[in-house]
Amino acid sequence: MDSLLRYRSLVREAAALRSGADDPVAAARRTCDRIDAVDPHLLAFVPEPDRRERLLAAAERAVATWGGATAGAPDRPATPPLYGVPVGVKDIIRVDGLPTRAGSLLPPGVLAGPQATVVDRLVAAGALIAGKTVTAEFAVTAPGPTRNPHHVGHTPGGSSSGSAAAVAAGLVPLALGTQTVGSMIRPAAYCGIVGFKPSFDRVPTAGVIPNARSFDTVGWYAQDVAGAALAAPVLCDGWPDGPDAAPGRPVLGVPVGPYLRRADDEALAALRAQREVLRRAGYTVVEVAVMADFEEIVTQLFTMNRYEVARAHTEWYARFGDLYREQTATALHEGHAVTDTAYEAARTRRAAFREELDAARRAAGADLWLTPAATGPAPFGLGSTGTSVMCLPWSNAGLPSVSLPAGYAANGLPLGLQLVGPYGSDPAVLGWAAGIEEALRADGAVAAGGTGRAEG
After folding, report:
1. Is 191 in contact with 148 (CB distance < 8 Å)?
2. Using an 8 Å Cβ cutoff, are 137 and 327 in contact?
3. Which SUPFAM superfamilies did the record assign (predicted)?
4. CA-CA distance, 90 to 307, in Å (whole number)?
5. Which residues contact 213 (CB under 8 A, 6 or more apart)?
6. What pLDDT was estimated at residue 426?
7. What predicted TM-score, i.e. pTM, was given to this entire model?
8. Runs of H (alpha helix) within 246-339
9. How far apart are the C-alpha atoms of 285 and 419, rounded to whole Å?
């Protein structure tokens, strides 16, 4: 359904708002109009009866605080980078004035707490919180109601489903999500947008309902790499001043072996085509035999994941266990069955895996890993959010990753290309991603404007 897709450039909107060519109140009004028109079909946002009144009031406060700076008023602070930009926030991230439900039936007061640090940063940067976006229950596996804006019969992925769909549909130009295993990158691929998951702990998780603390990472969605890069200095710790561009073209490593064989035939065919596009554009692509013990890696991650999520919910589940959905309750029961000894063994194996993965990359002379962002296009149906296996090893190692739109499957649904860098290389990953995005666009694999749909 093309009517559900609209391109919104974060870079252009932010520039127009900061220059005074656009007005935060007008931007807030347009955002509410778009949500009112589209979201009844998409269900990306958590319902909020007073959204328009709240958002317009926030826009007026932003104008009162910073608006004069665009006209050069000397008594106003400098206009911040996200002045007047509407942003969606995944509903496991606490926002003052909005209840946190985490996709669950638990009383919102039980989940209440101080506003998340990452939201503090958005507000300080001048952003307007457009509302809470739908999540799988507690960001585990029980899907929310959100539809894929490319075809409402297909999943948008999970657990950051609402945020990904909201950006793809042009409800907002920027939205926050989180990834524990594949909850940022997979929805980006399914919805045909850019998703960025920073290195583990690069963005504070204070004020975020935990899934598995050893893996939980805050990330965000935009329509293109330039938008993702604009948000990075606001949200990330220790982001360097100056341009994000990395020197030269990176050497790209394709991780051949059991991991890559988890992708379906269409995703693998697309990867071969994408590799050829990049070779023609001057990139060196090497194959790296790695993760021969991939099944053990999967087991190790889920041993840690289930152990941690079960313990994060000990108190809540004891009080409200009958309100949890079956998929979530099953995950908690699995976690409580994991012993302390098994958990510590999995942690030890994880540390070794990180070192092995990095050593293999360096030995091959690769700068970035190049893989499918998902096993294929979004599956039909809303009962499952798809598999996160293409993201699993990189989340396990805490590495920064980005999903780029990379063409379409035979059924017309988007495909994504995943780039993964060494730990802490986040600015370089986004800098290199911009060049790869441009190479794909120049070849026609991705239309300019992310989704390739007409801007409205």
Report:
1. yes
2. yes
3. Amidase signature (AS) enzymes (SSF75304)
4. 23
5. 205, 308, 312
6. 97
7. 0.95
8. 265-280, 294-312, 314-320, 326-336
9. 12
Cα distance between residue 431 and residue 172, in whole Å: 23
The angle at the Cα of 217, spanning 216 to 222, to the nearest 5 degrees, equals: 140
Determine the CATH number of domain 2-290+356-443.
Answer: 3.90.1300.10
132 is an active site residue: no
Q: What is the mean pLDDT of each run of 10 residues along the chain (456 residues)?
A: 83 97 97 97 97 98 83 67 98 98 97 98 98 98 97 97 98 98 98 98 98 98 98 96 74 98 97 97 98 98 98 98 98 98 98 97 98 98 97 98 96 97 97 96 61 33
Tokens 């506003």 — which residue? 115
Reference 413, options 299, 266, 290, 294; nearest CA is: 266
How many whole angstroms separate alpha carbon 358 and alpha carbon 132? Answer: 37
Tokens of 124: 């300080």
Residue identified by tokens 């707490």 is 113
To which H or E segment does residue 430 belong?
Answer: helix 426-443
214 carries an active-site annotation = no
List 159, 163, 199, 425, catalytic entry:
159
Indicate which residue of 90, 163, 214, 401 is catalytic. 90
- Quote the CA–CA distance of 350 and 85 in Å, as a whole number: 39
Extract the tokens encoding 247.
Answer: 């020197």
User: Which has the closest alpha carbon to 89: 101, 106, 104, 107?
Assistant: 101
> In sequence order, what are the residues at sequence separation of 6 or more whose Cβ sits closer than 8 angstroms to the Cβ of residue 70?
18, 19, 20, 79
Tokens of 297: 């890696």
**Exposed, middle or buried: residue 410 (CB in 10 Å: 0-12, 13-18, 19+)?**
exposed
Query: Does residue 305 contact residue 140 with C-beta atoms inside 8 Å?
Result: no
| 183 a catalytic residue | yes
Q: Where are the alpha helices (DSSP H) in 125-264?
A: 161-168, 185-191, 225-235
Which candidate in 160, 183, 199, 395 is catalytic? 183
